[in-house]
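User: Sequence for HTH araC/xylS-type domain-containing protein below. Tokens please.
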Amino acid sequence: MNTVNCILHIKNMVCPRCKYVVKQICEELGYTVLAIELGQVVIKSQEPVAEQLKLRLEEQGFQLLDSDHECLVERVKVLLIDLLYWNGGIKQPVNLAEILEMGTQTRFDKLESIFYSACGCTIQEYFDLLRFERAKELVSYHQHVQCITESLGYGACERLELEFRRRLNMDLSAFIASENNYRISLDALV
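Assistant: Structure tokens for HTH araC/xylS-type domain-containing protein:
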């Protein structure tokens, strides 16, 4: 039987640990992993992907994506997560449309329409939620507020303070003093 390389698009891969888990599942089921990145894995397979792989991924909170639109929405999310979490943050204003068009090879207006239909919010609204989650995470790690402000492109500490008041009805110092970190997992944002 011929072996083929299969590209699998996977929802909810948001961190390096997710890549590790997906790779481990594939290898345990006998697939050879050729490449892996957030949102996708390339495996060598002699047959169509087994239902067992789908079920094992779902047990760990992942989902195999079937449609092109689902894949595009997940690619947008992965690119934004990558920008905020794994590329050192955003030191200067960014053009999301440009970044996403380059990363998906799709016009931004089409991306925006597909994303809104699937998620019920705009890409900018999702990015703002994601950025705020990252800010909460960094604050909970006791990083200096000025560093957080700069690395996430808030421009000024006052803007970050305003986000805490607007989204959590508390100021930053109350958040820091709180025992509850009010965090939301990235796969649950939208």
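The radius of gyration is 19 Å.
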